[in-house]
């Protein structure tokens, strides 16, 4: 049986423990929602002041050159590339995940329509994040294609001659289940299918090797494990074999070969720069860079491998403590118990009261979130573990709060059953 003292000792010997100092963690909060909105890095405050006062305030428009604003999408992109196994100048920061998904899905469709017009389907997972499905649905409508939704285990066996694109999120937002990117990409390629990977719940949380897996396209989020701040810009990566061959449909001037020549016709920039569209949001990009730097700081402490090792231990500890200490309350672990198939989150389910239990925990300062189910998917109580700032003792204390909330019946109070706009 693990005790609280065991957790205190584990924190004392944790080589990543100093990295927690990079963050502004409010008192009295155990934050288990870094998979939804990462914690604010301390450095972001000073950097934002500098951008506001010096770069925007004093230097004004000159900052596009003097402060290098114009290169921020590439500069921050190259930093993120190091976390996801992409090469130099292959990844840029731009727009939102939803918008970037539209760009890469369209580019993949353009490639496939030229190669093999018989392929007219996009394959995905039924419980993929809704925005991914909505974007794919819209593109399918535009092209007269179909979107096929399957359970995770069925995906591989449905890669056939009528499928153009496989679109998967590596770590499922509801269950934390992680696909084997290399294996599924290889299976897709063997069937003539292009693989588009969404890294929203992977970048900064699990080791990703886009080049090693030979993926075709990838996109991901800046405000989750990359700690870029609410609504931070997203990123987009395209394998160099595709980057110059086709363009994406949102042909804005920032993706032009020569934006400041103001030519009336579009000529895509070489390489990944053509995936830019409009003017980059400099304030948000500057904040995102601070967030990405907090993850890169782990390079001096064992890097992604060390982050992953701690993430596995934190998620394992949480699942084990819930099963040991909250038994008999109808809670069960939905996330895979095999760590190799699990991202950096643990999801629980309960036949009823999931929303209220999460609200009761939040009232105690333990912040997770709730994702409603339907007839085919269970309600989810979701807990994300960011190894940069989550301690073993936080896991212990969070489970203790959960045990108290269940044993006292506190979650049944009416105030915890009132739904807010954002869950
Ligand atoms: C968080 C998340 C998104 C978010 O998309 P936005 O365009 O930033 O709103 C998309 N897809 C997945 C899988 C996510 O986890």
Automatic annotation (TrEMBL):
It catalyses: 3-hydroxy-L-kynurenine + H2O = 3-hydroxyanthranilate + L-alanine + H(+); L-kynurenine + H2O = anthranilate + L-alanine + H(+). Its EC number is 3.7.1.3. One of its GO terms (molecular function) is pyridoxal phosphate binding. GO terms for biological process: anthranilate metabolic process; L-kynurenine catabolic process; L-tryptophan catabolic process to kynurenine; NAD+ biosynthetic process; quinolinate biosynthetic process. Keywords: Hydrolase, Pyridine nucleotide biosynthesis, Pyridoxal phosphate. The modification N6-(pyridoxal phosphate)lysine is found at residue 224. GO terms for cellular component: cytoplasm. InterPro entries: Kynureninase, PyrdxlP-dep_Trfase, PyrdxlP-dep_Trfase_major, PyrdxlP-dep_Trfase_small. Pfam families: KYNU_C. Pyridoxal 5'-phosphate binds at residues 97-98, 129-132, 169, 198, 201, 223, 253, 279. Its cofactor is pyridoxal 5'-phosphate. Pathway: Amino-acid degradation; L-kynurenine degradation; L-alanine and anthranilate from L-kynurenine: step 1/1; Cofactor biosynthesis; NAD(+) biosynthesis; quinolinate from L-kynurenine: step 2/3. It is an enzyme of class 3 (hydrolase). Homodimer. Catalyzes the cleavage of L-kynurenine (L-Kyn) and L-3-hydroxykynurenine (L-3OHKyn) into anthranilic acid (AA) and 3-hydroxyanthranilic acid (3-OHAA), respectively. Belongs to the kynureninase family. This is Kynureninase. It comes from Caldimonas thermodepolymerans. The gene is kynU.
């Amino acid at each position: 049986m693990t005790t609280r003292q065991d957790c205190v000792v584990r924190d004392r010997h944790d080589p990543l423990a100093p990295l927690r100092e990079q963050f502004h963690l409010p008192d009295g909060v155990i934050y288990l929602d870094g998979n939804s909105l990462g914690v604010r890095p301390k450095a972001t405050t000073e950097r934002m002041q500098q951008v506001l006062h010096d770069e925007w305030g004093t230097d004004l428009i000159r900052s596009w050159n003097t402060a290098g604003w114009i290169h921020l999408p590439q500069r921050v992109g190259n930093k993120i590339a190091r976390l996801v196994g992409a090469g130099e100048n292959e990844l840029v920061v731009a727009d939102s995940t939803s918008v970037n998904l539209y760009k890469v899905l369209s580019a993949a469709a353009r490639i496939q329509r030229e190669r093999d017009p018989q392929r007219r389907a996009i394959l995905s997972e039924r419980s993929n994040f809704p925005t991914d499905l909505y974007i794919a649905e819209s593109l399918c409508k535009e092209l007269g294609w179909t979107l096929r939704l399957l359970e995770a285990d069925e995906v591989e066996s449905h890669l056939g001659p009528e499928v153009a694109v496989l679109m998967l999120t590596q770590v499922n937002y509801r269950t934390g289940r992680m696909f084997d990117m290399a294996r599924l990409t290889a299976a897709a390629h063997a069937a003539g299918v292009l693989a588009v990977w969404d890294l929203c719940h992977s970048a900064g949380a699990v080791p990703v090797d886009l080049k090693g897996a030979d993926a075709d396209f990838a996109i991901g989020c800046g405000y989750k494990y990359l700690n870029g701040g609410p609504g931070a810009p997203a990123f987009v990566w395209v394998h160099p074999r595709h980057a110059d061959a086709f363009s994406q449909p949102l042909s804005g001037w920032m993706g032009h070969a020569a934006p400041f020549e103001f030519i009336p016709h579009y000529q895509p920039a070489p390489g990944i720069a053509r995936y830019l569209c409009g003017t980059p949001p400099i304030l948000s990009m500057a904040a995102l860079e601070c967030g990405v730097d907090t993850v890169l700081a782990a390079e001096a402490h064992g890097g992604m491998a060390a982050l992953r090792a701690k993430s596995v231990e934190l998620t394992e500890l949480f699942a084990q403590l819930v099963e040991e200490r909250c038994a008999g309350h109808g809670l069960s672990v939905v996330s895979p118990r095999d760590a190799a198939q699990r991202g950096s989150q643990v999801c629980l389910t309960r036949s009823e009261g999931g929303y209220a239990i999460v609200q009761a925990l939040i009232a105690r300062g333990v912040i997770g979130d709730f994702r409603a189910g339907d007839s085919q998917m269970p309600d989810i109580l979701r807990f994300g573990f960011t190894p940069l700032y989550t301690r073993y003792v936080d896991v212990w204390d969070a489970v203790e709060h959960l045990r108290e909330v269940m044993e006292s019946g506190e979650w049944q109070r009416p105030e915890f059953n009132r739904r807010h706009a954002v869950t």
